[in-house]
Design goal:
The structure is a single chain. It contains twelve helices and 16 strands. By secondary structure, the protein is α+β, with helices and mostly antiparallel strands. The longest helix is centred in the N-terminal third of the chain and has 37 residues, at 28-64.
């Protein structure tokens, strides 16, 4: 959430930032309500001052035996007026808060300006795509032929966009989860967490999923709870409403969770395979940092996510999202895209974002510096480390063999009990 004082002080700059995002926002709704708010506050303050002053007069009259009745009647009218104005003020403040909640974050100056994903900026590439001397297959065909992935039966169980793994497919998914967690905890210094998979409305609001994107969420019928779309949501909110000591920063959390997304508006996109699912596994990385160190933390967060692909020896590229492609809460985002030879393209496998104090304001997450008096908002960062199903798909496509089998990446062999290749599961 953006700060109202900041918006009032830098209104033209904020308007420019929203235009860069291709966000059509009528700021007169905010400025008009803010003027009404200020006028109401002034009026209420004057009436309260009058009431306090006259109350002293009434007390003096009563003490001297005078008639305070007319003044008392007059003050009843003033009190009633104050109550009415307080209700008007509360309604206007609610409208202002709702408007602020609808505003996306301001893009950082380093973010390329562009209208959509076609204008994202390539930052670097890693690894050379493998050359194949046989017909390349997409992961869904490989998985089904090996008997380790069954999307038709998953559809029977739950509908479209749900996975069903068997045998070595389920084991490979589990191996990837353990490998990712072990790497981020032992090598990168994150604290492993196991958060709730269901959260309340306040938690969803803190990270920016609500109120704007409720249609993208799975809501529990009869309860004001939601299935998490990513463990960024519960992990970022761990210290919601708290003031933490500067010595705890940066906080570095990681978690494996299933993730649930309705994929509203994605009809007809990526209908085959594991790329766009209603339920998928993901290992997430979250950081809370001081404001001055958050962009340094973003670069290390990106490097941590990249390391997983490097260890798996999967080719990938890193891009900077342009202003028109940024997520709602992000000020800057790097996407990591893994090479998928079966689709002849790079596909997103991680987004690493710095949200500055945008989420911290919504969730009221603050820290106090050593010797400092006034608490400050932390900066929050998050990134996939990685999306497990998409990593599974990338391994099938990049490590496929002419006979239909799939080699196991060297780093995963211990996690697969020494198995070096996946052949057809009986």
């Amino acid at each position: 959430m953006l700060d109202l004082k900041f918006i009032n002080t830098h209104l033209e700059g904020v308007k420019t930032a929203m235009n860069k995002r291709r966000a059509k926002i009528d700021f007169s709704l905010l400025t008009d309500n803010d003027e009404k708010r200020k006028a109401l506050l002034l009026n209420i303050e004057e009436l309260r001052h009058t009431r306090n002053k006259v109350s002293d007069e009434i007390a003096g009259l009563k003490k001297s035996g005078g008639d305070a009745g007319p003044l008392i009647e007059k003050m009843k009218d003033v009190s009633d007026t104050i109550k009415t104005l307080d209700k008007d003020l509360a309604a206007i403040e609610t409208a202002i808060q709702s408007f602020l909640m609808s505003l996306p974050n301001i893009p950082h100056d380093s973010v390329p300006v562009g209208k959509d994903e076609t204008e994202n900026r390539l930052e670097k590439k890693y690894g050379d795509p493998r050359s194949f001397d046989f017909e390349i297959k997409p992961h869904w065909e490989i998985g089904e032929a090996l008997g380790i992935l069954d999307l038709p039966r998953a559809s029977k169980l739950a509908g479209a966009r749900f996975p069903l793994y068997f045998g070595n497919g389920a084991r490979l998914e589990r191996a990837l989860i353990n490998f990712m967690l072990d790497t981020h905890v032992s090598r990168h210094g994150y604290t492993e967490t196991l958060p709730p998979f269901i959260v309340n409305r306040a938690t969803m609001t803190g990270t920016g999923q609500l109120p704007k994107f409720e249609e993208d969420l799975f809501k529990i019928e009869g309860w004001d709870y939601f299935l998490i779309p990513t463990s960024e949501v519960p992990m970022t909110n761990i210290y919601a409403g708290e003031i933490i000591d500067e010595s705890l920063l940066p906080c570095k959390f990681t978690a494996y969770t299933p993730c649930f997304r309705s994929e509203a508006g994605s009809y007809g996109k990526d209908t085959k395979g594991l790329i766009r699912q209603h339920q998928f596994n993901k290992v997430e990385l979250v950081k809370l940092s001081t404001p001055e160190s958050s962009f340094e933390e973003l670069e290390s967060l990106l490097a941590n996510a990249e390391k997983i692909l490097q260890l798996l020896e999967l080719p990938y590229q890193v891009i900077s999202l342009c202003t028109g492609d940024l997520g709602f809460s992000a000020a800057k985002t790097y996407d990591i895209e893994v090479w998928m030879p079966g689709q002849d393209k790079y596909r997103e496998i991680s987004s690493c974002s710095n949200c500055l104090d945008f989420q911290a304001r919504r969730a009221n997450i603050r820290f106090r510096r050593k010797g400092g008096k006034k608490p400050e908002y932390v900066h929050t960062l998050n990134g996939s480390g990685l999306a497990v199903g998409r990593t599974f798909a990338a391994i099938l496509e990049n490590y496929q063999n002419p006979d239909g089998s799939v080699a196991i990446p060297k780093i995963l062999i211990p996690y697969m009990g020494g198995q070096t290749v996946i052949r057809h599961d009986a």
